User: Fold this.
Amino acid sequence: MTAPEPIYLDYAASTPVDPVVAEAMDECLRARGGWGNPSSMHVFGRRAAERIEAARRQVAALIGALPEEIVFTSGATESDNMALLGIARANAHRGRHVVSSRIEHKAVLDPCRHLQKEGFTVTLLTPGRSGTIDPQALAAALRPDTVLVSLMLVNNEIGVIQDIEAITALCRDRGIPFHSDAAQAVGRIPVDVHALAIDFMSFTAHKLYGPKGIGALYVRAGAKRQLQPVTFGGGQEKGLRPGTLPTHQIVGFGVACERARTMFAEERARLVPLREALWSKLAALGGAHLNGEGEPRVPGILNVSFEGVEGESLVSGLSELAVSTGSACNSASAEPSYVLRALGRDTELAQSSLRFSFGRFTTAGELERAASAVSRELERLRALSPASEGPEGASAARPSMPRGGEIVGEAGGPGQEVWVRFRLQVRDGSVRKASFKAYGCPQTLAVAAWLAVRLEGRSRAELIPGTPEDWARELAVPAEKLGRLLKIEDALRECLRHWPGEV
Ligand SMILES: *Cc1c(COP(=O)(O)O)cnc(C)c1O
Assistant:
């Protein structure tokens, strides 16, 4: 039997492809001559070019742009790179100062770092506690030599919408080009580039039910000379982004934009109550903190930090949900999210965050099941934590005298990566019963549980079964987590120190 598919709650990482989009792409690949090179003058080329221009109109219409203001790229990462590098370089003769923020996507932060190597100075603004950039802080950061401001419209981790109008007003007054990464905004909230006075804007098809590998950079009419190309070749896309255009990808992007334009008001009306219902269920579990609280947010993202549990353990216990913890790009390294840290969350809360992101194909029933799964897992992990024994448990954990044959050994503590406590009932020189409490990553919990069942029947001399290296080998614990196993060994050593007759 194969396990049922998990509930997909990671729309902010990528949305499912709308079947209507897939259909249009399939048709394009199979259509007579649709595969021609759109740059060719013959009929095959013209057919492809016509499809591309139709799609360009659909993409432009979604953001209130003119078709000629759309430059097709491979996605938001490429658009961000083109904008950051291209605008800064084109204006370097006027100054070498760039302003962005600490909660940008890596596709903006990494080019910023690259610009520093080219001699630019980059100011990264810190958002307020709920995730918005204060326009006053931006005003204070602007200098006479500032040549670019790049701030995202919607943050991908917490879904907070920035006050872009106030920000662009400041830039326009000073004649500074403004770029926005709008990958999470386009298709989810109304975005009108002319009304918002945005000069350059990145977005991507796979965040709005289109295919991966296609996106766009909006370049305001008249702003083209502010942008230097970063790649060179056949002159396509006005020389800003050369390369043969992928007709079927662009057709899919166009259809996705067309559907977003006609559907998003209705989708928003459906998703906002779903998000609020999910939040009220999670809030009722206690110790839940809404990240981005109090600010306008997109309908399909809910980011919550949970007290008293470790994020990686929480996610690995939720195998029936496809959700992300911290930032999707970072979850492999299990580093606390830099975005949540920038909002002032401590490491523990930044690490124990879940991002639920959902959309067109998500049902109320799926979100209810998600909330129940989180509730079950939180309860399990919190009950397993040494903190569940309360202050008495903690103080009894370091007894100076063994009480009634029970000894307690503990290592780590609240706020630390690992916190383990073993409780042993010792009679006639050997362990009769062993139990444990643990807080930490999945491997920490697994090793503590594995050890606890192996302690029974052991005498003092042979209490600790092997070394942390042995345990790591036995349970396939990655080398970088060995330090956590040393803590578990410390807890067992504490047990030895409290062994009856050893006081
Ligand atoms: C997804 C995303 C990107 C990257 O887009 P790609 O098309 O995958 O390159 C950039 N910025 C934000 C805010 C995103 O959410």
